[in-house]
Amino acid sequence: MGDVGSGAARQVAAGHDVIAVEKVGIRFKRNRRARRSFKDLFAGRTRRSRPDEFWALRDVSFTVKQGEAIGVIGRNGQGKSTLLKLVAEVVLPDEGRVGVFEGVAPLIEITGGFVDDLSVRDNVYLTAGLHGMTRKEVDARFESIIDFAEIGDFLDTPYKHLSSGMRVRIAFSVIAQLEEPIILVDEVLAVGDKGFREKCYRRIEELLAGGRTLFFVSHNERDLRRFCTRGLYLDKGRLVFDGPIDDALARYAADTA
Amino acid sequence: MSAATQLPPARKGGGWSRYRHSLWLLTRRDLRVRYSTSALGYVWSILDPLVMAGIYWFVFTQVFQRPVGAEPYIVFLLSALLPWMWFNGSVSDSTRAFLREAKLIRSTKIPRTIWVNRLVLSKGIEFVASIPVLAFFAVFSGAAVNVDLVWFPLGILLQAVLTVGVTLIVAPLVVFFRDLERAVKLALRFLFYASPIIYGTHDLPAELQGWAAFNPLSGVFSLYRAGFFPDQLDWYQVGVGGLMSLVLLAIGVLVFQRSERSVLKEI
């Protein structure tokens, strides 16, 4: 795993490829309780697919250049979140290749890394550390993380005693402080109050202005138009349209009408 | 706009330092959670082997008075019981390595072997922290210490290889075959009596002694015991056990690599 990028690929030259997805396919079991065998478990990538499996994504190819803001659209269950997870490299494809040449700040299941029994302070250090920040770097950003989340009074409260809104807030501010060049956003921001959501969106705009690459999954047309310039439209696990966001949304609207 | 929004320079640090960094973070988290939620903390991790040692000491020296092991028996017991707690704890926790941390694994892309290795490391640290208990009993009961004590670290190394190998096999398989969780518990209980913990390999019937070497724990425990009981050191057992441990580690790495893709989909 780790970075596939060579030294040359990491040079910050505007417009180089940061994500390359090549003929990617991934299949899942239709029935989670389906019978398994040892043969299944160790079968390599070349195994033929079986009747109780379906391809969540198949034959998807695209590249993303540095600084692009991409919105992924499609109906429920068409592979949007799976695509995001593939780019975050938290699942691996059965076919094709996913190359991610820069660090990624994934806003996917953001509260997942937080431990109930530890205090907010410990959790911030833990999560930031798992995403590659050193202790010193966290020290330097600690204030701004806490300020952003507006939970200064709860630093030593065990995480489990926070309200669900506070949990999302602190999780978002940790990831948003990561200095990674690629940001992945799944519909996490649906939680939290309106004021905080607006604050998150402004933060994403700031990051975009700073040259970050954005990968955004949403059903909200307004949000998509606000951030994204390019749209990927997924239907039945295939990439059916790749182009300007307005055209992608129009195509989506036409299909669902 | 703050400085943090500017595009950062190329990333620092190689894969290996990042691996160590993440491994250490999660290990520390494990220890911290375990000790922040219980009042007695450290005491618990030594109380368990102490109570067990007390029971076996009573049964075998006070009730039966049948000579097994060596004198002082309490040192003989603890020198294998404490490392057994490390092995037992790591393997039984590895059955839940992926299931318990599913949310975190789904959101970070750190190398997946860390989820298993952190268990071995945190239990290993607890083992090292329990060595003073062994030292205390050795002094208290007047055990003779000899130069073979230098093999103690080799025992730790060999056991680490063995434990990592076994946990790399168990952890991914349990995700697919949940029944394995209970099977592992049962196997561990069997292994406790099948390993030279409450007895030494010399106490076995002659025809079984050759086979005992194929339990890698025999070699490991003989290294730990050598410093107090020089006649327990058996290089044949250490050699066979070491070889078995390396083979298990190789199998573990293979199983883990081949099943990683499926594990990530399943959790």
TrEMBL record, chain A:
PANTHER family to which the protein is assigned, alphabetical: TEICHOIC ACIDS EXPORT ATP-BINDING PROTEIN TAGH
Q: Which Gene3D superfamilies match?
A: P-loop containing nucleotide triphosphate hydrolases
This protein is called what? ABC transporter ATP-binding protein
The organism is Herbiconiux gentiana
Which family is this sequence assigned to? Belongs to the ABC transporter superfamily.
Q: Which UniProt keywords apply?
A: ATP-binding, Nucleotide-binding, Transport
Q: GO molecular function of the protein, one example?
A: ATP binding
Q: Which domain of life is it from?
A: Bacteria
What sequence ranges are listed for the domain ABC transporter?
A: 36-257
InterPro entries (UniProt xref): AAA+_ATPase, ABC_transporter-like_ATP-bd, ABC_transporter-like_CS, ABC_transpr_TagH-like, Bact_Polysacc_Export_ATP-bd, P-loop_NTPase
Answer yes or no on keyword ATP-binding.
yes
